[in-house]
Design brief:
By secondary structure, the chain is mainly alpha-helical. The chain has two domains: 84 residues, Arc Repressor Mutant, subunit A (Orthogonal Bundle), CATH 1.10.10; 134 residues, Four Helix Bundle (Hemerythrin (Met), subunit A) (Up-down Bundle), CATH 1.20.120.530. The protein contains eleven helices and two strands, in the order αααββαααααααα. The chain has a two-stranded antiparallel ribbon. Helix 6 runs antiparallel to helix 9. The two termini are 28 Å apart.
Length: 240
């Protein structure tokens, strides 16, 4: 969820990008070499004139893109890649635009289609149990006529975990909440009763339980029919 924290000062996003720029400067000027350990949080926050929280957010972003690496009890180190490559990658990171909603939806479809296929092949009994429990929680909330958005989100994330692919799961964790928070305002899907959604979830559960990747993929496509239509028309792409 995005929270507007604008004030007379720079936004948190701007401050984080400023920290990233200053870390890049340390690397470019060879004050930090590839493989070097970063100074302590206290030292860097004082040097850059930022809070430790802002510094952590900046380092987390660099870690996500593989530009720094954290080692328990050892600290954070600059990745062992060339300075020119680091400079180029950080420049690209700083120029990344916030993804538009349509692109997020398309990315989710690509990721979750692969995730559910893998889940039907690789899921463990424990993961299947967690998927079923998430489905039951969704049913319970729906039958009461209550908003079950959180339970729907949890169900799809548990399916993603069943893929046993940590990268797909991490990407799903990043983009899916953003999609959920934009769902109502963008009015992508037509109104549908909860019974239909519950049945579609159940078909997904059954396919994963039966270890049938083709049926799992087909069930997901039925469940996401409005999203597929949205991507294939609004994005002017070939059918997915």
């Amino acid at each position: 969820m995005r929270i507007n924290t604008q004030s007379n000062h720079l936004s948190t996003k701007d401050e984080v990008e400023a920290v990233i720029s200053q870390i890049r400067e340390l690397i470019i000027t060879r004050q930090l070499e590839p493989g070097d350990k970063l100074p302590s949080e206290r030292a860097l926050s004082q040097k850059f004139g930022v809070s430790r929280n802002q510094l952590r957010l900046a380092i987390q972003k660099l870690e996500f893109y593989g530009l720094v690496q954290k080692f328990p009890k050892s600290g954070t180190f600059v990745s062992k890649i060339g300075v020119d490559a680091i400079n180029l990658m950080i420049s690209n990171i700083l120029h990344l635009q916030a993804p538009d909603f349509k692109s997020l939806v398309e990315t989710r479809l690509i990721l979750e289609t692969k995730a559910i296929k893998l889940a039907a092949i690789r899921r463990t009994e424990t993961q299947l149990y967690q998927i079923e429990k998430a489905h039951e929680a969704y049913i319970e909330k729906s039958l009461k006529g209550e908003n079950a958005v959180d339970e729907d989100l949890l169900f799809h994330l548990k399916v993603s975990e069943g893929s046993c692919n940590s990268v797909i799961n991490s990407l799903m964790l990043i983009i899916t909440p953003e999609i959920i928070t934009n769902f109502v305002s963008n009015k992508i899907c037509d109104p549908v009763n909860y019974t239909t959604l519950v049945n579609e979830h159940q078909n997904i559960v059954n396919a994963i339980k039966n270890k049938d990747p083709e049926e799992a993929t087909a069930s997901l496509k039925t469940h996401f029919k409005d999203l597929y239509t949205y991507c294939n028309t609004k994005l002017n792409t070939t059918p997915m």
